[in-house]
Specification:
8-stranded parallel beta sheet; 278 residues; TIM Barrel; 15% strand; 8 strands; 9 helices; 37% helix
Length: 278
């Protein structure tokens, strides 16, 4: 007789994305049926953070939210931004400051503006002592330098969707950061170096995520008809990470769920939320 696999926690997905507008309730149910018991919705703008909060309220104990400004949107920050974020961070459904950080791959906001807004998020997290949900792409040196100035005054920090180098990984681990891995590791083209880094990530620092609807695992078989990623694929990602870590799937599931529960201070046992969102 097979034991039931441990419930998984998806620490980062964009469930408010308009690609889910027609079947969001079904997507959530599919994830739960696949063993993804709790999901943390990424807030990447003021509107997105509010939408994540509203959706989390529809699924108490199942969905939670973060609130922040993605570096792509740093140029959109205005006078009321920080007041609104402070209000959001005071709510029980909002578990972290972010998504925020630096993205010098797309450069959709000027780099000095990105740095300024990142620092403002860090200052906010120092004040409220919430965990931080961070983004970094092609800006590792500047990102680590800025984060290091604040790290001792912050609580917990996760760099989500990590895809960077060994040097960057160890710089983050030296700063006592958690690491979030996505379906990028299932990409035979871009994820090969990441597979080799998994054994270097301590079990008490590793969490897993889909970043849905982005980063569909490329090695799904059969391949889905759509390129839209869903949280129901988190067990597939977890299996690949477990393989890279050379440990049983159940162990990887238990460890990442325990780490995520502690990081976000979730109840040890998932609550049941029926939800009302379509």
């Amino acid at each position: 007789m097979h034991s039931t696999p441990p419930a998984l926690i998806d620490i980062g997905l964009n469930l408010t994305h308009d690609s889910f507008d027609s079947d969001r309730k079904t997507v959530i149910q599919r994830a739960q049926d696949a063993g993804v018991s709790r999901m943390i919705l990424t807030g990447a703008s003021l509107d997105g953070s509010r939408q994540a909060l509203d959706l989390a309220r529809d699924y108490p104990g199942v969905l939670y939210a973060t609130a922040g400004i993605h570096p792509h949107h740093a140029k959109e920050v205005h006078g009321d931004t920080w007041h609104v974020l402070r209000e959001l961070h005071a709510l029980p459904e909002v578990l972290a400051v972010g998504e925020c950080g630096l993205d010098w791959f797309r450069d959709l906001s000027p780099r000095p503006t990105q740095e300024k807004v990142f620092i403002q998020h860090l200052e906010l997290a120092v004040q409220n002592q919430l965990p931080m949900f961070l983004h970094q792409r092609d800006a590792s040196d500047a990102f680590v330098s800025i984060l290091a100035d604040f790290r001792e005054r912050l609580s917990r920090v996760v760099v989500h969707c990590f895809t960077d180098s060994r040097k960057a990984l160890f710089a983050l681990l030296d700063l006592d950061c958690h690491i979030g891995l996505t379906g990028w590791i299932c990409d035979e083209r871009r994820g090969r170096h990441l597979k080799e880094l998994v054994p270097s990530i301590p079990a008490d620092r590793l969490m897993i995520e889909t970043d849905a609807p982005y980063l569909m695992p490329r090695d799904l078989d059969p391949k889905p008809d759509t390129q839209r990623n869903e949280p129901m694929y988190l067990p597939h990602i977890a299996r690949e990470i477990a393989r890279c870590a050379d440990k049983p799937e159940d162990q990887l599931a238990r460890e990442t769920t325990t780490v995520a529960s502690a990081f976000f201070q979730l109840p040890s046992t998932p609550q049941t939320g029926t939800g009302a969102s379509a």
